[in-house]
Structures are given as structure tokens and as C-alpha cells.
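Summary for the steering committee. The consortium agreed at its last meeting that each partner would contribute one worked example illustrating the joint modelling workflow. Our contribution is presented below. We chose a case with several input lines so that the handling of multiple components could be demonstrated. No manual editing was applied between input and output; the record is shown as generated.
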Amino acid sequence: MNGKVLKPLVIGLLAAALLVGLLPGSSVDSLSAASAPDAWTIKLSGLRTQDLGTSYYNALLDKYGVEKKVDKKGVTVTYRGLPLRYAIAMIDGADAKDPFTFDEALWKNGYNVSLVAKDGYTASFSTKDTAPDALIIATFEDGKPVMPMTVGDTAKSLWVKDLASIETSLAPLPAAAEAAAFSLDLDINGTKASFTLADLQKSDLYMEAKGGYTTSAGTHYEGVYGGVKLRALIERYAKLAADDSVVFTAMDGYEMTYSGAQIFDEKDGTWLLAFRLDGDYLPKDPGFIRTIKVGPANPNIDGHLSVRMVKKITVKQAGFKDFSLQMDGQMKWTLDRSTVESCTSCHKVTVTFEKKGQVDTYTGFPAWLALAYVDDPKYAPHKQDTSIATYNVAAAQKGYKVDFVAADGFTVSLDSRDLDHNDQVILAMYKNGEVVPDGEFPLVLVWDRNAKKVPTGIKNVKMIAGIKASGF
Amino acid sequence: MPVAGLVPAMDGSHRAAGETAPPSAFEKGDPMSRRLVATAFLATTLAILPALALDITVVGATPSPADRSSVVSAQSLKILETPLVLPDGSTARGLALGEVAPLLEEAWGLEARGADGTKAWSDDTLAERLYSIYLVESAPAAPTVPGAPGAAPASRGAAPKAASGWDLVIGKERFRGVESLRLVGSLLAEDGLEVWLSWEGVPELKAEIARFAAAHGKRIKAVEVPNTQSKLQTVARGGGALPDLAMIQSDYVPALAGGKLIQSVDWFRMDELEPKGYEAFRSEGHSWAVPFYYDTQLVFYNKAFVRSAPPVDWCLDDLAAMARPLKGRVKAPLAWNVYSAYWLLPFMLGFGKDSVVDPDGGMTVNDGPTAAALHALLGLMKEGLLEPAERDAMVAWFASGQAGFILAGSYSIPQFSKLGIAFGVAPYPLATRGGKPIAPMLDFKGFAVSRRTERPVLARRLVQALVSQGFQTRFTSALGKLPASLAALENSRGRNPWYPQLKRSAELGAIVPPADSYTVFKNIMWKLLRFILTGQQTVEETLATAQRLIDEGGGPQ
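What follows is the complete predicted structure of the assembly.
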């Protein structure tokens, strides 16, 4: 055999010998655990998740390892391992690295620990009933290495061989986590909103009442449902008409459409987006949310009408037209329709307007509120902390010019002092309960016929496209 | 619980009205006098039998105050005995040792003393096997001369006695005339189990569980829950206490396993149970419930119209041919819930689908077999033979003689018998002559073990009892269910008049797959099938839509 062959052969043999630990300088693991380095991993889950691998286990074992003598079929067996508390310490708090602090108070308070073997066998205990050092994660049995197992001063059902994971109830179950992450999405004429179940539970639209449905097989189901009122929720964003379509999209992609007329049909009960039944939250199927009618009369609907697993509600109104309002002054803003609608919803005022003997009711918001967008160079409504007042009272009372400009250029100029806190002069989106008609759309400047203060020079301005403030 | 010899379960004497032979003299008597005669018979039988009580002792490795001895009377043994199929294939009357032995956490030794002397067995898994070790009525011992060829060897230190009373059967070994048993192990301390039950037979199941609990001095709460999946998820979300065991069906598995609410039962494999049952609860490479019983789908026919049973190898065309003369005479020559994907699946398989769920876990509906199945059903409807009907309507028509043939679950057998309907059952036909069978769905129910149970051994012992041969024979035959226990099913041969049809259906049947995609498929098809069946859309259009929705909503994970 020549040197060219011999040298690599020797190197190979040396490497092999090193790997099997025949030579000095082998890993510490070969002394403290016959398992090869990182030969196993125990998955831990609690407030955090962590893998307990061989290397870290062995380091802990060297420091904190203990022996437990137990009786196995009449024979005393000695196990060496790491008290369970050291593994639990890795996941019972926010500590993300060594040294991990074991939360003894939390243990005494009580939570569930599940020990899971590779074959799936799982045994659990409550920490209230078990001392933190009762169990060890053992890797030696009478001096011989074994795959990690729990053993100790407990019932034998908790002596779990081939330990694969330790789960605690400190981690929310997937069902709970999924429910917490769920959101109901709304798309009302392009305005989007999302609500968690917690949001809906806190809503002022939440109610509980009895209702039910009957399947096509004739099976009758009923109960006390809790949820938010469907029509009221939608109408926070748009006023429904009978011929509008409300599309429910379920989590599995299925869609069902109700007409506005169906939603208006509440003579026997109220349509709910229900997420509770008889005190429990609905599980994902048929929940998390389903539509149902409820009320004192315990209405019962056809099962097909109860939409399950509702994820999204989309409304595109038949006569829906978009618009924007240009604001110009110390700042410039373009207010979209949903902003104007929100303003109307939150600051709703209805006036009785009379013109040439014709009397109509108009609903909108006080014109002076819109001036907050343009009456100073810094602050605008809903753009900063609510503690900051955005309407510049001083400027309004000092006086500046406010032009209401229609789409055709027609302009009426008023004084800010006449508009200041004058709730009876409004920018209206609705006339006699409906969206203002063509010819007035999108906004109309009107005032109450009995207004205490009618601004000098005010005229009815239709089709308002913008408001300009100047002369500061 | 039927007392052996007095009230047979499904022994062939269970008859439907119109099918009976004239009652015997015994049956003609009033119920009370029949009971008195039976009691006298039993008392006489017991008096003749040796008054043999069986001593069972549980000891630890070393004597201790915890050692426990109990005596089981011959009467108790007699009451508990049922027909059994033994491991060597022979039949006997007896009971499982687990029915009378104390509950054990573990056991590693068993010693028997009796006519065959003393014999001991060592096995670390003994505690898991007590329901597969049997006490059977002794067979008469053949006279032997010690040392003669073929004579049974005497155990050391004892002269062979004439066997009487009970024999112990372990595997293929039989120890004759057992008088005492000594189990080396430790008693089970776990207590306070909660079990959720659902579906049919809950009162009977509760009674059995109560008997088990009383026999072993344990507290076990059995609760009827309409939908165990929903309740488990709801309770888990609310942080409430989960049960230790819950009855589930196959399609619950993905949500419950994925939701970490149940534990894998790979460690609970029992060869004595129907393998398809384990498959029914298999998902992501693990089994998630121990099969308990199952139902299959059958063709039920009205004997007023159908005089002879269909041939074993009949096909769909034969069914149509048998139904055709009923057109105009009844409301529905054929009736079943055509709107349901569950009742469509067998036809999909019969018309060529290899499996319900694709190898990658998805479901394909936009394919030839599904279209062929739907066209075949539409053909029957167009011809005026098949009337779609949901279950309640279908049963009402059948009961009133307004339907000739229906498809229904085997669980309907006891119901129809009670209603006094003159019916017959047949396995599903082949889809086409000489073709594949329309494969009935096998709907398994099983016991899932909670992932958070603090009583895993007691839970396991209860499940071992519930899937044992004796219990399964008692429970399933009374309810018309198919037992997960292979031996219990074999036991019913000759006793259950529907055994041949049930057995054939079990052999042909396909399991309801525990896959998310099946749930998506079921929900989507439930909504879309009516478009086809009402003629609003073509088969091809609807299947294309369905496939798109299935792929979007619930394809392979």
C-alpha cells in the first residue's frame, strides 16, 4: 500500500475513531450521555415555546441533576435526571434565554402539564397536585443511558417513556388562539372595517335572545343566541335599501346573498350576527359567527337562511355613487364619502328646510364642524390624540371667510362667526330619509327654518364640491 | 343486560311481524310464568354445577397490606358469560378475565391453580390483555392415563383432577378447572372519570358504564352530548374541564387532533378490532380514536312488493328493473337522500373512483366517476323511479308502504323492526353488471382520549372493556350496530338474521375519511347538488364550480 492511499486511509480511520469517541478530545456528551449530541429534542410549550435539546439538557444535568429511586416490579431502580422544573422554567415566563427562572407561584396556582410520548401517549397532571421536583426527566436508568423519560414520586401513568414534548395550559389551545385571531370583515360600499369577537361582544349592538332554525330534514334547533344586530351594524356605514344586496362570505369561501328586504323583515325577530349559543361561544363550525333571527317570539327560520361561518359582509348599494369633498384653507384635505358619512353618523342633525313653500327634512352634520379641517395649519379631526381640540374657536370668532362651492362653480360666502357652533346650519347627505337626489348630490347647504341664527347671505347650495376658508 | 340463556340478543328469534313461525309453548305463556320457569331452570343448572367460586388475588412484587383478594361466585360468572370466539377460532361460552379481575395499573405475572395444577405466565403487558384472556365453561375432560400417548402432562406437584367449572384461556393455551388466580401487579388508583357519549344507544351504554364502575368501585360520569366535537371545542375555548373520553366520528378528527384536544392512540392498537376502524380515525400518520362500532349502508326493500331477496351479485340495473313495476303503484319505487354527498359517495366509488380522498389529501369531484354517478341517478329520477327524500320523509314513506326500496343505515334495522315493517335488506348492488360495487360508507364511532386527561389508565381500561368481545356482543346486537370487535361480529353469525348482508357490506364498505377536504366536500356538495337535481345547472357545470370551491376552501394542507 503506497503513501497516497495510506494517508487518506489513516485520516479516515482517525476521523471515525474520533466520532465514536475512542480518542481523547471527544465531546463532553460522550461522558455524560451516551446519546449522540442533539440525538433528541423535547418540545416545550407554555407562555413561550422552546426546544430542549441534548446539549442544553446535559449542561443542566451536570449542574442540577438528581437521582430518584423508584420501585419497579419489586425491584429498586435508580434514575438520574433533571428535575422537571428546569424544563418548565424555560416556558413559564418571559425569559427567553438562560438563566430561566422557574415561577413557583404560578406552579402553585395551578395549570395543566401534559407529557407526550413519541407514540402519542399523553398523561397530564395539575401542578397544584404535584411538587415541582416530584418528576425528573431521566436519561439514566441504573447507570445505563435511556431515551428521555419522566419518572419520580408520582403515579406510574406519569412515567412517560420516549418523551417527545411537554405541553402546558399556559399556551392557549389552537381553538382559543384561532378564535382570538378571527375577525369579521365588513366592506360597505368600499368602506372597510374589521371586528374581533371581543370587539363585537363589547359593542352596544350586542344582544341575547331566543331563536332557532329548522333544517330541510325537519330537525328543529333553538337556543339563546348572543350577537350583534345585523341591520344596525350595517347601517352604521350605509343606509340599506330594500333592493340592496348584502353578500355573506363564509370562511370556506361560500357566499350567500340576502336582499335588503330580507334584512328589513324583522317583524318576528331581530337578525343577529350570532357568536354565542346558550352561554358558550360558537366553535369555528358552524361559527364563529352565524346569522340567526332572535326575539321574544322565539322566531324559527329556514335552515338555509342561517349562514354559517360568516367571515365577511359586503354591501354594494344599487344606487351607490362615490364622491369627495375638497377642503381648502390653512390646510388642504380631500374628504372621501366614508369620512363624510362617518361625520354624519356621529354628529347627526336633522333640520326642516323650507324653500318657496316646499318643506323637506334634511339630515347631515353641522357645517362648522367641517371647518376644523382647514381653520389652522396643524390639527384636523381624528388625525391626532383626542385630547387636542381641532376646531379653532378663536379664529372662528375672530372671523374668516367661508366659501361653499358647488360643482358648477356656484359659490356662497359666509362668515365664520355666523357658522360658529351653529348646529342649525348643516351640510346634508339625506333628504326626507333618502340620499339626496341627483341635482343636489352629494351635499347640500341647508338650515332649519326656525334657526335662531341664520347666517347673513346664506343661500341653499346644492351639489357642494368643496369648502374654502380664507382671510385668516 | 340479557341474562345468558333467557333473553337472547340477536339469535334469530328476533322476528319482524309477518315473518314469524307460530310461537312455541314457552313463548305462548304469559311473561311472568316464563320468568318463573326460566329462574327455576337457572337455579337447577347452578345447583348441578359445582359450587365453584373463583379466587382472584392481586399482589405486588412483595407481600404488602395493599394486596387484595376477591372471590367471584359461580353465579356472577354465569351471569356475565356470553358466546365467545376464542383465539384458536373455536367457540365457547364464557367471559373475559377483565370483567371480574380488579382494575390494574400494571401487571407482569399471572398464576393459575386448578385441575391442571399450577401454571404461571410472565408478561409485562398483562394488565392490557385481561380482556383478551378468557374464563370459559369447562369442556368435559377426556379420561387419561398419566404417561400414555396423548395424555396431558400433569403440572408439577399436582395430580391431574377431573376438570369442572371454568377454564382459563390465554392465547391458544387452555388451563382447565381454574380455582384461583394470582395476579402480580399494582391496583389502579385513578378514579373520577368523565365520558361523553353520543348517537344511538346512550342509555344502554350508560348502563354498561355504570355496571363497570360499580364492579370496580370507581366513579365514572357518563354524559350524553349531542355534538361532542362542538362541545369539546367550546369548552376548550372557555378554559373549562374537558372529559377524559369522548365518542367521536371520523370527520371530527382533523379539528380535534389539530386543535390538540385529543391524543393519538397509536399505543392502543388491538389486532382484535376491525382494521378499517383504525383507518377511519387515521390522520397525519396517527390513529386518533379506538373504533367502537360502525354502521353501514344497506338497501332496504318492502317485502310486500319484493318477494325474493336480490341476488348477491346484483347491479344497479337490476335494482331499477325490480323497482320499475312499482311505478304508479307507490309514491317512490326508489327513495333516498340524493341531495346528500354522504349518499352520493358510494356511487362515486362504484362508478370508478379509486378512493374517497385523493392521495394528497384533497378531493376531486370534477371527474368521470362522479359525473357518471350523477348521470345514473338523474336517469333514475327522470324515469320517475327515484324520488329524492330526506331521511324522515323517506322512512315515513317506507313505513306506510309508499316506497319500494330505500337506502338507509344499518342502524335503521331495530327501528324498522319495532315499527313492524315487513322489510328485507340487501347489500348495495354493483354499479354496472360485472363492475365495481357501489361501496357503502362505513360510519365508525370511536372513543377518543383527551389530551389533558389525568386518568389515562382508567380511560384505557374502560375502553378496553367497551371494545371487548363480550360487551360488544351484548351492546351492538341489541342496537343493530356492527361491532368493532372482529370476534363479536363473528359471534353474531347464526344469531343475527342480517349477518350475511352486514358482513358483505363491511367487506365492501369504504370508510368516511377523516380529512378536512371531506368536510369541505360535504358542505359544498350539500349546497350545490340541488342545482343539478332540480335541473338548474348541468352536472358538468356544477362539478366544475364545486371543484373550484373545494380547491379554494379546503385543499390539501
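The first helix of chain B runs from residue 25 to 28. The CA atoms of residues 110 and 183 of chain B lie 5 Å apart.
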